[in-house]
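TL;DR need structure tokens for one chain.
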Amino acid sequence: MADVSIYVALISAGAGVGGATIAQLTTALRESREAKRERRERQAEATRQACIKLLRAVGDLRTQVANNHSYHGVEMGARLERVREYAAAAQLHAVRVSLLVPEQLAELADLLATAASDLAVWTAQSTNLDEGSMIRTTDFRELDERIKAFRTQIVTDIAG
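>> reply
TL;DR here they are.
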């Protein structure tokens, strides 16, 4: 009879420990899933913000170059500085994008930043600071094509 009491006690104790363990494991699994979901959401938001900042820097560069073309005055040096700042910002944001996204989108970000840098160099070479004006008409086709390709891939990779 004493043997039955010991077995009953062991089974009862084991059930209690098992029940407590299962509840803790369930809670741990749920928290782990929530943490992974939150991490994915933070990653997605960081990626969206990096892409937006890249597009903003490139858009600001394009606008500044277009505005420089119609400007004639003594502040052309300061205007060229802004062009270089936007190109540098585009390079920085492209690196950030490259750290966060798949390889194909990273390549497009790099090509976009390169086109922005090329436009900044071309703008400096096409500007006569003595006259305070640009001496050649700006061709935005390459930059616009890179912007379009990058946006299309963003929609495919991130928004889709």
